[in-house]
Here is the input.
Amino acid sequence: MAGSATLTVAPTTWPQATRWEGISHAIEAQDPITAAHGNRVGAYALAIAKALSIPPAKAEIIRIGACLHDIGKIAIPKNILNKPGPLTVEEFQIVKLHPLIGRKMLEPGAAFEPFLPIVELHHEHSDGSGYPHGLTHREIPFGVRIVQVADVYDALTSTRPYRGPLSQAESIEILLSGAGLRWDPEVIRVFVSMLKNPASVA
Here is the structure.
């Protein structure tokens, strides 16, 4: 796992597991980088949920939603996703479509309904500056807020086409600077504590 190899949590059991795993394998075949990122975010999100004493069934919904959160990116042109430099305004507008694309991909299947808020809203910000809807803190479901923090941390600590991975310390500093503005401060507090004390994770 990028950034904190010792922070690992075994997944729990979800009754519809075979359905979402089929989707996960399809993502991996189309875009292995997105699939690997989703799996790491899922593990981080599950660890946070457990630390916050979220019931196992809800924690598993958060984990699977996290694994699927970027599914819409498989519809974004690879020359944009893998661009080694800054995106143009037009290119970024295309990337910003992926949460809504992801929702549209999954919503025909009733079994995926619990995961739709995570897929659709993982780029919203507490101060209303995010996308696609410009929601504020209270409008963003708590499970989504957990995935947001896990997503940002993994993105920061992973290699990207335009930069190398940031260190754990650098990534924690960015999370803390965005607490209450972009991301949930309580989720960040718990996650940072876990990263600094990985032995405390059950």
